[in-house]
Amino acid sequence: MSDKVSGFFKRLFGTEPVPSPAPPETHPQAPVEPIPPVPETVPPAPEPEPVEEQHVPLPGPPETTTEYVEDIEARAAEIRDSVPIIPAPETAAPRESWFSRLTTGLKRSSDNLANSITSVFTKRKLDAATLDELEDVLIQADLGLETATAITETLRRDRFDREVSGSDVRNVLAGEVEKVLGPVARPLTIDTTKKPFVILMIGVNGSGKTTTIGKLAQKFAGEGKSVMLAAGDTFRAAAIEQLQVWGQRTGAPVVSRPAGADASGLAFDAVTQAKAEGRDVLIIDTAGRLQNRDELMNELEKVIRVIKKVEPEAPHATLLTLDATTGQNAMKQVEIFGKRAGVTGLVMTKLDGTARGGILVAIARKFGLPVHFIGVGEGVDDLEPFAARDFAKAIAGQD
Ligand SMILES: Nc1nc2c(ncn2[C@@H]2O[C@H](COP(=O)(O)OP(=O)(O)OP(=O)(O)O)[C@@H](O)[C@H]2O)c(=O)[nH]1
Ligand SMILES: [Mg+2]
Fold first, then answer.
1. pLDDT tens-digit map of 272-287
2. According to a count of CB atoms within 10 Å of the terminal CB, is the N or C end of the chain lower?
3. Exposure of 192 by Cβ count < 10 A (0-12 exposed, 13-18 middle, 19+ buried)?
């Protein structure tokens, strides 16, 4: 590797390949029930193997309560007075387009790729060593071995022993990424014959579940749908309030129970209530949980079982939020949440920040799960349908 390139590597990646960071734990949980001592499973410790089906006898239907629903107006007023509301977008300075926020967000990763590619390919003929260097760069960007190999093989076939520019390589990269992501870029379709269409939002701590629920509520309300939210993160009072603020902001009533209540009981109540009211969409929040916390994954399975007692086909969509700043650990999240909770689609959040979105390519290739939306900011409108071509261009550093 030339000094120039190795300089880039040092600046971009450090001297050693950097392991993926653990998923953020911005909101450490304070479980209500004492949790039995857990073996040291904090990432990047080895992940537990696929978990055996637990044959836990189903609990009887939890008690339903209704007073919290009647209380919604009072709660909303309380929250309105106590919680500062983020200024509405129209009062803010002119905003960048979402694509430019995405491109800016991916700048670090695309700069990595774009700059690294440029330094590898400055006035060089395409030889085996250059292709190896390129493959390293692509793997470091989390694209995955298959995609990295596909790109280098395309170049080997078409350009070997000829001069190749960085922009030629970026074109091949964008094309290959788009090829992988095209089939998974699928909108979230609400089946209007389901009343309610139940969406369960799951993911690791701080990955953007609650914020994405707020954005989705806004989107569905804008389409004229009647939306209800369920504060299924019953661990923390702040989590319940956070969802209530989103409910108030988007005009969606929020079903909640006091902090510490059983999450599956809340889910049972919420589905029952939304059904009785003929709501179009019910979105259920859940507490963040690391995929390797077995007891918390058991709890999630229980929430799903209890939802099915009211509505056997629900949840109709189970969405996993993935924080774009997470690297390889996102693969494990998709795998384990997929096995335990039957993920039906993905939302990648925080693509406006310093992001490493390349992992989405590896995830798409391995799991083929639909990617419905991307989060490009913290505001209520900062949710965009996932578009493979735009994402591919942003990753490759094309304008
Ligand atoms: N920049 C940016 N920030 C986001 C985005 N989505 C969520 N966030 C922020 O990420 C932080 C965590 O978001 P939450 O929605 O609370 O995440 P969560 O998954 O509900 O977290 P827990 O309930 O603690 O598990 C908040 O500060 C959000 O404002 C996004 O698309 N872009
Ligand atoms: Mg939350």
1. 999 999 999 999 999 9
2. C
3. exposed
Q: Predicted confidence band at 108 (pLDDT cuts at 50, 70, 90)?
A: low
The pTM of the whole model exceeds 0.70: yes
Tell which one of 27, 107, 211, 215 to mutate to probe ligand 1, the residue whose CB is within 8 A of the most ligand atoms.
Answer: 211
pLDDT band at 73 (very low <50, low <70, confident <90, very high): low
As a whole number of angstroms, the distance between CA 353 and CA 356 comes to: 9
Q: Which two structure tokens, joined as six digits, stand for 21?
A: 């960071």
Distance from chain centroid for Cα 338: 13
The model's pLDDT over 280-310, given as tens digits with 9 standing for 90+, comes to 999 999 999 998 899 999 999 999 999 999 9
Q: Which atom of ligand 1 is nearest to the CA of 376?
A: 31
Nearest to 215 by CA among 90, 348, 340: 348
Measured over the CA atoms of residue 263, residue 267, residue 270 and residue 272, the dihedral's sign is negative
Residues with CB under 6 A from ligand 1: 26-27, 203, 205-211, 233, 239, 288, 321, 349-350, 352-353, 375-378, 382
The string of DSSP codes covering 199-258 is EEEE-STTSSHHHHHHHHHHHHHHTT--EEEE----S-HHHHHHHHHHHHHHT--EE---
Whether the CB-CB separation of 62 and 306 falls below 8 Å is answered with yes
Where b means 16+ CB within 10 Å and e means fewer, 233-249 reads bbbbeebbbbbbbbbbb
DSSP element (H, E) containing 323: strand 317-323
Percent helix, strand, coil in the chain, to 5, is 45, 10, 40
Which-ligand-closest: CA of 29?
Answer: 1
Centroid of ligand 2 to alpha carbon of 169 (angstroms) = 40
Angstrom CA distances, 187 to 110, 227, 346, 384, stand at 25, 18, 10, 10
Q: State how far the Cα of 101 lies from the Cα of 95, in Å rounded to an integer.
A: 9
pLDDT at 248 over 70: yes
